[in-house]
Specification:
The complex is a heterotrimer. By secondary structure, chain A is α/β, with parallel strands linked by helices. Chain A has ten helices and 16 strands. The chains are: A alpha/beta, B mainly alpha, C alpha+beta. β5 of chain A pairs antiparallel with β5 of chain C.
């Protein structure tokens, strides 16, 4: 069993720039997804959850700097600043590590009109991580995880392991991705974007919605103050089936959950709540329902936050974990925005109304391209 | 039609990176997916791009692809009926 | 104490393939990485049509893994006990640039799904997993330079926490100017092969054998 505690977190999304603001918006059933009409990103309109540059720049005025940063870097710097300010952790200490979770980083810098604004290396993911770590004066080489849509959950798994091993006392896990022409065009070519805001697990679901967000989760070896939620176990697994389609049997997801529960030493009936990946593509949600069913977790309330934030790729696992932590602190189950009628083959308990509910032990799931799957179990002491 | 079928064979081999395959190796009535040429879901999406890029025909619903992309012949027939 | 041992490793760079430090194939006259990889693949393992559909960096990682798995060191491992941990510095920037070129112009806008899917570095691990049925831990890391100590510690920790019993590890990188792959196989089975400890120092030493 791992000894790592969740001590602080943040979410930067169109719904707010703190975890509390985002949680409040979700409790009201709001969504950050809007119809975007920006031909620089895509020739036609499309739904996505995007952060207005103006509101980001306004918030960024509070960050002391004279340097120019990219849209994503501003999101990440704001996110880390807010989370670290809630703790007494010394970010300049060699015992404080930084892990960055991202799929495409500053990919918008590849566009012809952006190419000369920053140095060429800025599009490299290790360089992005250096820029963030360097801003805060962290002395360690940042660790970057780029493992498609499971990056965020995987990064928390890695952080907990490095703390358990004694390599670090604290790890600041940061995740971020933006809605770019690159990513929108790619998912459009896959025909996996819904023409409307996405509907996770719903009968009418017809694809995902993209979103942009940054999020920070700080893990520590010691419990501090009222922070009493700890990491119990986690794992990743590959479907070994197809590079873009999820397994029809939910094999990888099933294995990841199994290993995570084994390490956490919990049984399915102890799981009070599942925060699913729930992208709202027909295949992903069906696959997750099979993995959940195979573990007989059918009664555990399941939600997906993709209808609120969109799919934020490398940030998703962190954003959704930050909300899960807040659900646990408030003993509240948030509804799945966009969901109304169950549309998967297995009977699972999708939350369709925000309610009070005692939460102690929870499961987080993630899946992504490359047949990748991850899971983790967290518990309130 | 015969000319279009030959052209499609060359384009599909090229676009889908069907290594070591010659146009004559493909029978225009063979199924492209499953047991035929063994194409998969990403290839199907790539064929949709091919139709749009080379023939200016846009397929909005990927489900329509199943019939259209059954074989080279069905693709050629679809192109002929949608061009001009 | 039980520990992981490196059983076999492969380097691919400068139009050469080396197995366990020994030259195994070369094609110096190749006019591109693409050209070389196709030739090398046909030399080692012809007949897996999916190889030709991969982007070049996935081909590179896939070929290196095929070379080390040729003698089936994995035959006694359960699929969910085999992990893959690969790292590089460039992520998939060469493929990203290719995809970017297809979307720059509104009047010539044809994003290719089969290029887009390869703009994630972990896809190469998916390809290796599919080929061999590996269902264990996966992680793709990005570092400015190969970080042998981190990779060794991470994999050893996964081993100690019983999340894997065997692993493919290494570094597979491609830029517009060059490419290199260093991939090894490690497991815990004592089977007479000269043992190389799975440690940062040894991995660093093996990586530097071919410069």
């Amino acid at each position: 069993m791992h000894m790592a505690f969740f001590v602080a977190d943040n979410i930067i999304s169109p719904l707010g720039f703190t975890t509390a603001d985002n949680f409040f918006a979700l409790a009201k059933g709001l969504t950050g997804i809007d119809i975007i009409n920006d031909t620089k990103i895509y020739p036609e309109t499309f739904p996505a959850a995007m952060i207005q540059p103006r509101s980001l720049n306004n918030a960024f005025e509070n960050i002391p700097t004279t340097t120019t940063f990219t849209h994503l870097e501003k999101m990440l710097l704001l996110s880390v600043s807010d989370a670290i300010n809630k703790t007494t952790i010394d970010i300049k200490s060699p015992k404080t590590g930084i892990i960055l979770s991202t799929t495409k980083g500053n990919i918008d810098l590849l566009a012809p009109d952006q190419q000369n604004k920053f140095e060429k290396e800025r599009v490299q993911l290790w360089r992005l991580a250096q820029v963030i770590a360097g801003y805060f004066g962290n002395p360690n080489q940042p660790i970057v995880i780029s493992n498609a849509c499971i990056s965020g959950v995987l990064a928390i798994n890695v952080a907990a392991m490095l703390i358990h091993e004694g390599k670090f006392d604290h790890i600041i896990v940061i995740g971020g991705d933006i809605v770019s022409r690159f990513v929108v065009s790619g998912f459009m070519s896959f025909m996996s974007l819904s023409p409307k805001a996405c509907k996770p697990f719903d009968k009418e679901r017809d694809g995902l919605s993209l979103g942009e967000a940054a999020s920070t989760i700080i893990l520590s070896k010691d419990k501090t103050g009222k922070n009493n939620i700890r990491y119990l176990g986690g794992a990743s697994a590959n479907d070994a089936n197809h590079i873009s389609g999820p397994s029809r049997t939910g094999e990888g997801s099933f294995i990841a959950i199994k290993k995570a529960m084994e390490e956490a030493n919990v049984t399915p009936h102890q799981i009070d709540h599942i925060s699913a990946h729930g992208t709202a593509t027909p295949y992903n949600d069906e696959m997750e329902s099979i993995a959940i069913d195979r573990h007989q977790l059918n009664k555990a309330p399941v939600n997906s936050l993709k209808g609120s934030f969109g799919h934020t790729l490398g940030a998703a696992g962190l954003v959704e974990t930050a909300i899960l932590l807040e659900e646990m602190r408030n003993n509240m189950l948030l509804k799945t925005v966009g969901f109304s009628e169950l549309g998967v083959s297995r009977k699972i308990n999708v939350v369709n109304q925000t309610t009070n509910h005692e939460l102690k032990t929870c499961l987080k799931m993630a899946s992504g391209f490359g047949g990748s799957n991850a899971a983790m179990v967290i518990q309130k002491a | 039609m015969e000319e279009l079928i030959q052209k499609l064979k060359v384009q599909i081999i090229e676009q889908l990176n069907l290594e070591d395959m010659e146009p004559d190796d493909i029978d225009e009535t063979d199924p492209l997916f499953g047991n035929g040429l063994g194409l998969d879901s990403i290839d199907a999406l790539e064929l949709i791009v091919l139709l749009e890029k080379e023939y200016g025909i846009k397929i909005e619903n990927p489900k329509d692809g199943q019939k259209i992309f059954y074989s080279i012949k069905s693709m050629a027939e679809f192109i002929e009926s949608h061009q001009k | 104490m039980e520990q992981l041992i490196i059983k076999t490793y492969c380097h691919i760079k400068n139009n050469h393939v080396y197995i366990n430090g020994q030259p195994a194939f070369d094609y110096p006259e190749a006019n591109s990485m693409h050209d070389f990889l196709k030739k090398a693949f046909k030399h080692f393992k012809p007949g897996y049509a999916k190889f030709y559909k991969m982007d070049d960096i996935s081909k590179l990682g896939f070929l290196a893994s095929e070379v080390i798995l040729k003698d089936k060191p994995n035959q006694n491992c359960a699929p969910e006990d085999v992990g893959i941990v690969i790292s590089n510095s460039q992520s998939t920037l060469v493929t990203d640039t290719e995809f970017q070129a297809s979307i720059e112009d509104d009047d010539h806008f044809f994003p290719s799904p089969s290029v887009f899917v390869y703009t994630l570095p972990n896809i190469m691990m998916g390809e290796i997993s599919i080929r061999h049925g590996f269902r264990g831990e996966n992680a793709f890391y990005i570092f400015e330079n190969f970080n042998a100590n981190f990779v060794a510690d991470y994999i050893n920790q996964l081993f100690l926490s019983q999340k894997l019993k065997a692993c493919i590890g290494g570094w597979v990188d491609q830029s517009s100017e060059s490419y290199e792959a260093f991939i090894y196989w490690a497991d815990d089975q004592k089977d007479g092969i000269p043992a190389i400890e799975h440690s940062g120092n040894e991995i660093e030493r093996l990586y530097n054998l071919i410069r």
